[in-house]
Amino acid sequence: MTGARANGRTGDHHAIQAVTFDFWNTIAYEPPGGSLTARRIDAWTGVLREAGLAAEPERIGRVFRDAWGQFGSRWAAGDGFHAADAARWAVDRLGVGASEEVRCSLVEAFLAAAEGAELAFAEGIEESLRGLKSRGIRLGIVCDVGFTPSRVLRGILARRGILGLFDFMSFSDEVGCYKPSREIFRHALGGLGAAADRAAHVGDLRRTDVAGAIGAGMIAVRYTGLHDDPGEGPEAHHVIGHHSALAPALGLGAR
Predict the structure, then answer these.
(1) Whole-prediction pTM
(2) Mean pLDDT by 10-residue block, N- to C-terminus, for the chain (255 residues)?
(3) What is 4-31+119-249's CATH number, 1.10.510.10, 3.30.70.890, 3.30.465.10, 3.40.50.1000?
(4) DSSP string computed for 31-87
(5) Contacts of residue 58, Cβ cutoff 8 Å, sequence gap at least 6
(6) Which residues have CB under 8 Å from 247's CB, separation 6+?
(7) How many helical (H) and strand (E) elements, i.e. helices and strands, does the chain have?
């Protein structure tokens, strides 16, 4: 799907002041064969072995899967459970009797494991961002952070050379709440200096991105190029399968 379909609201190119983007499965994604989990398992195995404690990669992996399940439940409930919380929860669950020093090392290793990770980027995202920027539109990110802290995500964007395209970023581990809370969208709009009815948000999930944007009074755009969400939640004003379709969906002419 490369075009766009509208659902009851058409963007006005005179009205659009800002566009915000989700990060995961909208801007970037973990490519097939890439494994942030494997990096975390390796990091913990090294810390535990150095401390003379049992280091079983399979058991560590199971604990991380349990931690992800815990995150999913807390995320759905809007209850804060970010990377450091998940790491501490996983240390407790692992039950290796680590000292406080080793516990701190495990938490830091969990957070740092993704530092050098390379993600793949959605096709056409950079061209879309630069096209919007050339029109004087302010750009932002509204992202629910899982196990990869916002500082790491910023580093990934910087290595790609597009961090400077964004004028403001609202990450859940910094703002203190998850989408679809209006607070995180208002945080972004305030930082961008944009009125809600003159801003659009692009993301892949109905429950968080679409519902949150609509609740905040923004134009909602659901991006299906990496993940066509079958979950519950409202449909967006516009649905696009490629980032090249974003500007036309918002009523912005060719440039």
Answers:
(1) 0.85
(2) 51 75 96 81 93 89 89 78 87 86 92 84 98 97 92 93 98 94 97 97 97 98 97 96 97 72
(3) 3.40.50.1000
(4) PTT--HHHHHHHHHHHHHHHTT----HHHHHHHHHHHHHHHHHHHHTT----HHHHH
(5) none
(6) 128, 131, 132, 135, 253, 255
(7) 10, 9
